[in-house]
Amino acid sequence: MLRRHLLAGAGTALGASALGLPALGQGTQGAARVLKFIPQADLAVLDPIVTTAYVTRHHGYMVWDTLYGFDGDYQPQPQMVEGHTVEDDGRRVTMRLREGLRFHNNEPVRARDAVASIRRWAARDALGQALMSVTEELSAPDDRTIRFVLRRPFPLLFEALGKPSTPVCFIMPESLASQDPNTPLRGDLIGSGPFRYAANERVPGARVVYTRFEGYQPRAEGTPSWTAGPKRVHIDRVEWHVMPDPATASGALQNGEMDWWEQPTGDLQPVLRRNRNVVLEIPDPTGLMAIARFNHLHPPFNNPAIRRALLGAVNQADYMTAVIGTDRSLWREGVGFFPPGTPLASDVGLDALTSARDMDKVKRDLAAAGYNGERVTLIAASDFPSLNALAQVGNDMLRRAGMNVDYVSTDWGTVVQRRASREPAERGGWNMFFTFWAGVDMFNPGVHQSLRGHGQQAWFGWPSIPRLEELRQTWFEAPDLAAQQAVARQIQQVAFQEVPYLPLGQYFQATAYRRGLTGVLKGLPLFWNVQRS
Predict the structure, then answer these.
(1) Distance separating alpha carbons of residues 206 and 189, to the nearest angstrom
(2) Minimal CA–CA distance to 149: which of 137, 132, 134, 133?
(3) C-alpha to C-alpha distance for 312 and 400, rounded to whole angstroms
């Protein structure tokens, strides 16, 4: 931490040339129309359907558009569609695309493109799978009409098509959307959104570039709010500059070489707050939910008793302090499987996390569960500060519990790729990794990917917990909020028994940008509506 503060001070004093960065305003023609952004991590995967990585989702919102968007009240609003009708007691839903929508190759967006995109997305998305399970017909009667015929009403249909939780239902050309949903996209990334991806300017590990798509038509009405409303672009070029070292990122932002830092680390936020040219704000009031994910396919974490024993080792305050600092207003402990303060949160089973910590008991519980020194391969993202902090605390926790840890420190892109492997750790697989989800992605069982239990079809880790799946279906059929809350309590009770992952707490991540930027939207790093004052 001391090194970071020293470097932050040095970064403030040094010029752009000392940091090896091009200065934004030094003789660069059109600099006011270029925005330089520091993302949370490098863009390792370009296909937003095959991964849940947030950096890929943010890339997705640059390149593609959605049929519906989410506003600041978490309500779906028409985006690419001009409207819809609901008939036959909710079993027949017809959507009409707006006129003039075009892909980046200037081909029109047709309903059959949307149908193919919905099908590919639904194969990977928890809520999409639930939607398709009740869909009798999904068709494109003409170029602007999308039709759902449902076996029974699905009240979350518009939420499913518009939610920002990963994977998002982005609309792609049929040529892309017809590809295997389990394999990354091949060919040019032809988008439908407000920016083009500049593949020829990509520098892996260093830079991603987007340019404004002149043929994009924003909605004519409404006010921009989260991913809903008109997407009016005021920037010609957006450059993502990958800076794993927080001190370098802090110095670049303060000096004006960078315009926006997505996730400033907790120890450097006080430095940024003292700079009158920098704005810090919390973009997402639902916070970020940190987790340690087990691989359920291989020893030792294919044993639920071993997973359960580790609940007693978790000190959520340790994890949260490592990530965001000692300011208690920025994090919460005593966090279960749903975000605190949301309708489905409860205290069921929380004593497993809030009772007095006793590492000797954890060791005894592990031994009784059958742990016999099997190696635990923990893959950690060293270039992703918040995840690196989680992994370091987790490594210490596992070692103090007496586990044999193989700590593999690598970059986030490698973690994203390796976590997809179902092989044992000795053949390139893994046993544990750390990540976080936005609270909105854990609001309910419909979107909560890491709380699924459908085996090989589940999110990375592949838990097989049939009772969770049964309760999830019961939640979909619950007639009102009270009934949904009752089911959610049962889900949390089962989760504390089966432990699909370890809940590590909730924190609120600030974003930081230069005061000269206006129109920065809440929710996600979105680049429409942003302009310089």
Answers:
(1) 20
(2) 137
(3) 12
> Residues 231, 496: contact at Cβ < 8 Å?
no
Report the chain's terminal Cα–Cα distance, integer Å.
Answer: 34
Contacts of 283 (CB under 8 A, 6+ apart): 509, 510, 511, 520, 521, 522, 523, 524, 525
Q: Which of 195, 206, 261, 210 is nearest to 63 (CA)?
A: 195
Q: Give the span between the Cα atoms of 458 and 422, in whole angstroms.
A: 12
Strands (E), 282-342: 288-294, 331-332
Residues in the chain: 533
What does pTM read for this prediction? 0.85
* Residue 338 burial class via C-beta count within 10 angstroms: exposed 0-12, middle 13-18, buried 19 and up: buried
List the one residue out of 282, 269, 359 whose CA is nearest residue 323: 269
Question: Which residues, including other chains, have CB under 8 Å from residue 524's CB and lie 6 or more apart?
Answer: 57, 58, 61, 164, 226, 227, 283, 284
Tens digit of each residue's pLDDT, the chain (533 residues): 223 333 333 333 333 333 334 333 333 445 569 999 999 999 999 999 999 999 999 999 999 999 999 998 889 999 999 999 999 999 999 999 999 999 999 999 999 999 999 999 999 998 999 999 999 999 999 999 999 999 999 999 999 999 999 999 999 999 999 999 999 999 899 999 999 999 999 999 999 999 999 999 999 999 999 999 999 999 999 999 999 999 999 999 999 999 999 999 999 999 999 999 999 999 998 899 999 999 999 999 999 999 999 999 999 999 999 999 999 999 999 999 999 988 999 999 999 999 999 999 999 999 999 999 999 999 999 999 999 999 999 999 999 999 999 999 999 989 999 999 999 999 999 999 999 999 989 999 999 999 999 999 999 999 999 999 999 999 998 888 899 999 999 999 999 999 999 999 999 999 999 999 999 999 999 999 999 88
* Cα separation, 240 vs 27, whole angstroms: 20
Instruction: Report how far residue 469's alpha carbon sits from residue 454's, in angstroms, rounded to the nearest whole number.
Output: 7
89 burial type by CB count under 10 A (0-12 exposed, 13-18 middle, 19+ buried): exposed
Q: Find out whether the peptide bond into 300 is cis, omega within 30 degrees of 0.
A: yes
Provide φ and ψ at 531, rounded to 5°. -150, 170
Q: How far apart are CA 190 and CA 110, in angstroms?
A: 14
- CA 532 centroid distance within chain: 27
In whole angstroms, what is the distance from residue 148 CA to residue 94 CA?
6
Q: Which of the 8 DSSP states describes residue 107?
A: P
> Which amino acid is residue 306, in one-letter code?
I
Write b or e for each residue in 210-247: b if 16 or more Cβ atoms lie within 10 A of its Cβ, otherwise e. Answer: bebbeebbbbeeeebbbbbbebebbbebbbbbbbbebb
The single residue listed with the structure tokens 């830079």 is 207
